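Students often ask why we bother predicting the structure of a whole assembly rather than each chain alone. The short answer is interfaces. A chain on its own may look different once its partners are present, and contacts between molecules only exist in the joint model. In this exercise we take two input lines together and write out one structure for the complete complex. Read the inputs first and try to guess which parts will touch.
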Amino acid sequence: MTETKLPVKNMTAPTEYLKDMEQTDPALIEKLFSYLDEINFGPFTNYEVSAALESRRPTPRDLAALLSLTAEKRLEDLAQKARRLTREHFGNSINLFTPLYIANYCENSCLYCGFNSKNNIKRARLNEEEIERELKTIAQTGLSEILILTGESQKKSDLDYIGRAAEIARKYFHLVGIEIYPLNSDDYAILQKKGVDYVTIFQETYDVKRYAALHPYGRKRVFSYRFNAQERPIAGGLRGVGFGSLFGLSDFRIDALATGIHAYLIQRKYPHAEISFSCPRLRPIPGNTFPLAGRISQKNLLQIICAFRLFMPFAGITVSSRENIIFRNNIVDIAATRISAGVHINIGGHCGKIKGDEQFEINDNRSLAEIFSMLKERGLQPVLSDYLYV
Amino acid sequence: MDNSKDILHLGSHKFTSRFILGSGKYSLNLIKAAVEQAGAQMVTMALRRANPGGKENIIDYIPEGITRLPNTSGARTAAEAVKIARLARELGCGDFIKIEVIRDSKYLLPDNYETIKATEILTKEGFIVMPYMYPDLNVARDLASAGAASVMPLAAPIGSNQGLLTKEFIRILIDEIDLPVIVDAGLGRPSQACEVMEMGAAAIMANTAIATARNIPAMALAFKKAIEAGRNAYLAGLGRIQNTASASSPLTGFLDDGN
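Now the answer. The structure tokens for the assembled complex follow.
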């Protein structure tokens, strides 16, 4: 593993909450690490991988077997089963959405991120008029699901600002998701009333030491608060929660295992919650030459996605526009259930009036019409509306 | 057998087809062919897939003359199901509503308690309510009392194609409930549809078994024929099943009626 050489300023221990942070029952985090200790990601035998592949109700240990190096040699078998389970649970439906970045100010210093507060990028925040203009432009393409994103700045992108953006989005879209900094459950409840229905929170890595090294400043440094960030929106009334690691920050097999078990534990505790996974790999970042923990190949990523599908056949899986066209075209045929289209990740990009820089580089900038055609050609059913806000 | 006089009554509506087709897991442009091959007169659709005025609006793909059965999938409570039902009516989907209240994202098992509450409210508003339920006799009785037009017990977890896992409990509902019992969810093969129709189910609903077939319209046709065969067998009256052979030299043969 590559350790960062940059200076680390310890604002707080990564498991120590700040005063205004809502604390939740620590049982979940304890259970996760107890699973990880118990599984002790050692070598898996062919027999264990076969048993995991054949299991109708895979356990966390089966998930580890499916993510193992041994299972990599059975990737075709994983993909075949993943495809069958995806079709059983979702049919040939693929949901379409696009992200809308409304601000890129950030108070954190994630060493791998383009929005790092120390990075010299063009910062911007759309005002309400600009947000509405972007939303209208996107809605005119025919999309009815929007994902609103901000950098993690509570000053520049406060709750009122995000709530207002959600209210405007609700006028044009059936489904509004957010990817913002973690909040307390009361704040999520406010956003739910304003029209937000799901939230995705990336833990980035479940390796606590590595997490501390990668997040030297800012509220994000508090690992536990972020870890419990899926429970709080559920308590606040949001319908769905997404999970994700940024593969490449640490050992991807362990991070994938921890992500899966995290989702598994939340699903057991909150059976009504709709669970989904996002599976980004670390990509080149403008102005940042962060060293990867190890190269994550497409093969590795496919194995992770298939393992998630086998472990939780009912979970949504989103494929990032970080991936290239060939990978995205094929993964929707195997396990992904949700794909972005018409992606612009700079601030103001949908209307062509770019005010701020992007967080990372994308590899698939196809329009909605192009993604639509690709899905139809592959015999898949593009789904623009799969949701009712009630 | 002429099935045109074998009528399925749902509310004040009459159907000669006993196959309700799902529409959610396959390409919208195949719905028409599947409906034709299935001979279906009623098609379910998730209202959340409706996209009025937009692209790929599922409502636009239900052929003319076919009764729409909007479902409340996505509802987690009775209150949410009621709101979705009202919205379906506003969108011109008619008065039929299939209630699905699900608070379990893993197995998608219906919440019977909330389903009864939603049924009570919606029947008072004039809906023809067809509740999806776990086959529990007490719940089925409550649904009947609440004014449901049918009960729709699951055969197995939805989308699982696992077949008739709840067979004996469905049999109890068929025996005890006066409403049409429409078996919904989990049937994976035409032979299972046939079996449940032989048992006396009023109709079946299928989606995944057809949607995941290699040839969707052909599987719709296979289900149609199986449902008709099962129904005809039920109407004809199945022969008695005996656990032992009829002895050709009965033990009681020595008895003399004269003594």
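Check your guess against this: Chain B is about 35% helix and 15% strand.
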